[in-house]
Amino acid sequence: MIIVEMETVKLSQIVMKCFPDMMPSLKQQELNALIVLRDGLRILEPNDALEIIQYSICENQDEQLMQ
User: Fold this and answer.
1) What superkingdom does the record give (predicted)?
2) More exposed terminus of the chain, fewer Cβ within 10 Å: N or C?
3) Across the chain, which distance is largest between two alpha carbons, in Å?
4) What is the pLDDT of residue 14?
């Protein structure tokens, strides 16, 4: 049996765990974005974290353009 430990975290938690130096360069709205991690924050790999951060920034920019 496969157990999936889904966890919802703010993007700021991912950034602080993997790339804390990026915190000042992200907008508060981006940092507050909710992210659902299939396997939880504790096993998140840096490469996956970077991909999530990049995607979140793009999503935020798209939302800004739509307004």
Assistant:
1) Bacteria
2) N
3) 45
4) 98
Q: Could you tell me which residues come within 8 angstroms of residue 23 by beta carbon, excluding any fewer than 6 positions away?
A: 12, 15, 16, 31
Q: Is the dihedral of CA 45, 26, 12, 4 positive or negative?
A: negative
Q: How far, in Å, CA of 15 to CA of 3, rounded?
A: 26
pLDDT the model gives residue 61: 78
Q: What is the DSSP string of 21-67?
A: GGGGGS-HHHHT-EEEETT-GGG--HHHHHHHHHHHHHHHHHHHHH-
